[in-house]
Amino acid sequence: MGALTLSNVTKSFGTTDVIKGVDLQVEDGEFCVFVGPSGCGKSTLLRMIAGLEDCTGGEIAIDGKRVNEVAPAKRELAMVFQSYALYPHLTVRDNMGLALKQAGVSKPDITKATDRAADMLSLGPLLDRRPAELSGGQRQRVAIGRAIVRTPKLFLFDEPLSNLDAALRVATRIEIARLHRDLAATMIYVTHDQIEAMTLADRIVVLRAGRVEQVGAPMELYNDPANTFVAGFIGSPQMNFLKAGALGMRSDTMGVRPEHLALSREAGQMPGTVSHVEKLGGETLVYVNAEAQGLLTVRLFGEHNFNVGEAVHITPDASRAFHFDANGQRLR
Ligand SMILES: Nc1ncnc2c1ncn2[C@@H]1O[C@H](COP(=O)(O)OP(=O)(O)OP(=O)(O)O)[C@@H](O)[C@H]1O
């Protein structure tokens, strides 16, 4: 069991309000990802759930029980940070088993728990090594292993992959997803990497300046964003926002994803000039200065030879466009 309820949770540091009333229900076994721009309060909210920060107001409950006054160690949760914080003088096995040892668990039970975690994370051959003898990715796996052995109700991850290189990030991300399936545990995961959010989450919570903008399954947020902020935050490259009036529309802003803009040398709805081209292998991103509409991003599949300075025309796929009012709220 590991259901989490946040009810009107607030946090202020002195006179600065950082979390401004968050309500959220995370179901037992759910993988919930907090995303949002730097400084929006993701880590603060996670640290409040962990008990590392007090709540200024509101209530945090785990399995229906208020935990505001419960010490972090008593909340039956495990936190994995960006920095692995392993003990350099201890072996992998001892690093993973330390919390159990401190809790007075018997030696055979510690061995059983660490062996099981090592097995899940393919750390078996590394159990006798010390952190200095491990790669960054291996160290992060040990930090995750250290969380698993305690069989917590809730796993809290704070940007756990941001110190890893691109290939390791992908490998460890897949490992975390597999672990979630195997353990069926509740996981709360903070990231600013939206590929991690999209691929790992059952539900994503989009935060802005201490408030929840939208909560939903990844594809729900992608296909049905509530406002320009969520529309612009979910999806990479970012959605284009066009001045709808200039295109004869009644809405204020029309949002079109880069893959839903057609690019032509001959004719189209909006004239422009190619300002930059990025060939990524499987796809080509063409940045077009579309006069009154500003800089637009067009995503083409495969390799395309558009040249900087070339005159082009852009046509949005109206059937895939999103419309927003002057306050950025979605018009449906
Ligand atoms: N101990 C503190 N004292 C004062 N202000 C703080 C403290 N901790 C965080 N803040 C402020 O609270 C806001 C939210 O910080 P937080 O670290 O939660 O953001 P974040 O969304 O996790 O950002 P990032 O993605 O950059 O890590 C920031 O404006 C930060 O400066």
Automatic annotation (TrEMBL):
A GO molecular-function descriptor: ABC-type maltose transporter activity
Keywords, alphabetical: ATP-binding, Nucleotide-binding, Transport
GO cellular component, one term: maltose transport complex
Coiled-coil residue spans: none
SUPFAM superfamilies: MOP-like, P-loop containing nucleoside triphosphate hydrolases
InterPro entries in the cross-refs: AAA+_ATPase, ABC_transporter-like_ATP-bd, ABC_transporter-like_CS, ABC_transpr_MalK-like, ABC_transpr_MalK/UgpC-like, Mo/tungstate-bd_C_term_dom, NA-bd_OB-fold, P-loop_NTPase
Lineage: superkingdom: Bacteria
Domain ABC transporter: 4-234
Homology family: Belongs to the ABC transporter superfamily.
PANTHER family the record matches: MALTODEXTRIN IMPORT ATP-BINDING PROTEIN MSMX, MALTOSE_MALTODEXTRIN IMPORT ATP-BINDING PROTEIN MALK
Protein name, per record: Sugar ABC transporter ATP-binding protein
Organism: Cypionkella aquatica
